[in-house]
Amino acid sequence: MTLKTIFACILAAGIAMSAAAQDLKPVKDKQTQKYGYQAKDKSWVINPVFDNAKRFVDGYAEVTVGEHIGLIDANGDWVFPAEFDDISRFYKNGLCELMRKEGRTKLRGAGDQTGRIIVPVDCQAINIPRKEGLITAKRIASGGALDGEPAWGVYDQRGREIFAPQFASAPNFRNGAAIVKSAANGLEGVIDENGRVPVPFEYLSVGTYGSEYVSLGPDFTQTLWDGALRKMRSAPLPGSVKPYDPQGNAVRAAAWHSGNDCIGVRLHRNTVKTIVGGVNLSHDGKVSCQDVREINWGRGGRFLRLEPVPFEHESFEDEEWFGQLNDPYDDHTKYWLQARLYEADGTLVDVVCDAGSVLATFDGGLIYRPAASLEHPEKLPLDDLLILNDINTTGRNRFSMLLSHVQEVSGYSIYDNLGITRQDVQMYMQPTVYARRLIEIAEGDNIGITSYQQPDMAFLRSPAARELMRAPLFRYPYHMGEVLNCSVHIRAEGIDVDLYENLICRFDDHITDPPYRMSGTEEIYWGPNNARTVRLSVEPVSGNVTALEDDITKTLTHYQIVLSLYEEDGSWLRTLARADYADYVQQGVIVFDRLGIAVVAPEVLRLADRFGRFSSWSYARSGRDARGDVIHTLHLPHAERLPRTLSALEQAAKGGFAENRFTGRRQWSY
After folding, report:
1. What is the pLDDT of residues 340-354, one digit of tens each?
2. Neighbouring C-beta atoms of residue 314, cutoff 10 Å
3. Using 50, 70 and 90 to split pLDDT, how confident is the model at 625?
4. How far apart, in whole angstroms, are the C-alpha atoms of residue 87 and residue 103?
5. Is 244 helix (H, G, I), strand (E, B) or coil?
6. pLDDT of residue 436
7. Is 640 helix (H, G, I), strand (E, B) or coil?
8. Please, what sign has the CA dihedral across residues 99, 101, 104, 105?
9. Rounded to 5 degrees, what are φ and ψ at 209?
10. Is the dihedral of CA 262, 263, 268, 274 positive or negative?
11. DSSP 202
């Protein structure tokens, strides 16, 4: 007998049983108060032994014994004993969903028409296909980094495990493949229905690109894969930075931006200075600072990082070298606090100092003491370095500053020097927590990456752009101290504008290929000489009715205002923000309320500091916020929100900006 004949017989038997079962009705026996099933002649076909019973559907009936549900066939035999709290109907593929409760928790599984449990009833969630396809279930993982944690696994319709529980969400297979995220490391890859992983779980995001795939790596490199999931080519996203690499070390992971603000962050020439003549740690006082001549900062935005690096010199194992940091909880683990120089894209250039430690901290930074080089003992160590938190410290080669609240760091404990705790380190020893840290570092080091996509330069060179940008506020570059964070307070008469002495932009990065989104804030670095500038421009935008209406050239187009950062030589560097409109433009002040950014004439703050008042219609006062940062408050008594038109913006700008025709330089009118 052939297999086809056997299936035909089983199907025929099932149909016959189903037809016979339809003639049976659930009946309650008056004597026993139990339910059974009677034929049309009211004879008992299935004896009344159940506490409740439902009609037969497709040859099976749901019955209750006590508080639990089971499933019987037309002969009264158990398909599933009464051990469940819910049983679904059988789908076309012969599978059903089973559910039982443990307290308030509902556990689910899958069974077939023979009564076999296909997927154990221990799943937090389960997806059973109605026809052909794979089963996905959320279960407790056993072993590995996810041991004891819930994750999604994949099973075939016979219950064979295709993928053990390991995914953050249920895989959705299309054309035999599914893009999934690993629950262990939070990274995405691609799996297929045969249990293979053609694209490993090594990417921040994976998406489809027509019939092909595209992935985004933690180093913000895009990779294109063909329809057969073969790697084709890769390229870094413009403006991306290779992120800080913990190298599998929990101390390095904990040190990034933790405890001390200077550890693991990008340090520029402005924030790394040599202390001339040393520093007295016994009290606060002035120090003389100058550029570090031994560091070649190059011309392309190189940066320095202080990084804890495990000590691996076997010949010095028993030596106590100056600058060597010890782990008091592990006698065999020692570290150096290295100073490493990187290119703007995060490529290592040089180890400026391969041994050192934190000598002291103060308000605004720390003092780093280099030690003699083990790799190059012939090199003399650097002088003590002043490392400043403020990335926009004056760009002068030499200056003096007051160090306040100086505190010497005692001993050479890795925890004291880095400002971290043992609990921080232990936390990052957990594989899943460490994996999430890697994503946090990758995003943190690349916040604002999509702002490296240029504005519409072709439009900016067009006659239409020149016509639309004829207002004075578009014609001048704005320098450091003229573009500030702000907050607006509406008063009974006008508004108050609080101005802060920094520029922190919020970036909402939306990468399209593959889809990936991240948000964060970043303090804007004004260059090694603080000579970068911000320019305003307009850019056409479609489908945005809240943007500025073009009532100048009458093209029925809407425009956004774009704030862009330019390098000292005038080359475009990055886009800081886009605003649908300017909220207020008045007497040398441009306020973008929704962005929290204001453009202010330098004379406004200078005169406010000097006289307290700078015009007949506004006054200023200065104070400090909770962090001690200076706040200037401007009061604009007649400020009103501008209409969202280009002509209104142009007209408002004429009242606060004027051009000296003889020098071509900027003048501010009051």
Report:
1. 999 999 999 999 988
2. 7
3. low
4. 18
5. coil
6. 94
7. coil
8. negative
9. -135, 85
10. positive
11. E
Strands 95-102 and 86-87: antiparallel
Which two tokens mark 125? 């969630």
With helix as H, strand as E and coil as C, how does 606-620 read?
HHHHHHCECCCCCEE
Looking at this protein, which amino acid is placed at residue 266?
Answer: R
Q: Three-state DSSP class for 277?
A: coil
| Residue 266 phi, psi (nearest 5) | -80, 125
Task: Decide: 306 and 385 in contact? Cβ < 8 Å.
Answer: no
Write down the pTM of the prediction.
0.84
174-206: string of b/e by CB count within 10 Å (b at 16+)? Answer: eeebbbbbbbbbbbbbbbbbeeeeebebebbbb
Place of tokens 């290779």: 242
- The CA-atom distances, in angstroms, between 579 and each of 71, 256, 539, 546, 563 are 63, 33, 10, 10, 8
> In the predicted model, is pLDDT for residue 10 greater than 50?
no
Q: Tokens standing for 421?
A: 């705790």
The pLDDT tens digits for 214-235 are 999 999 999 999 999 999 999 9
Copy the structure tokens of residue 544. 């945005």
Beta strands in 66-144 (DSSP E): 68-73, 78-84, 86-87, 95-102, 105-112, 117-123, 125-127, 135-140
Residue with tokens 């497709």: 58
- Residue 639, class by beta-carbon neighbours within 10 Å (0-12 exposed, 13-18 middle, 19+ buried)? buried
- Say which residues have a Cβ less than 8 Å from residue 559's Cβ, sequence separation at least 6: 468, 538, 539, 540, 541, 547, 548, 550, 646
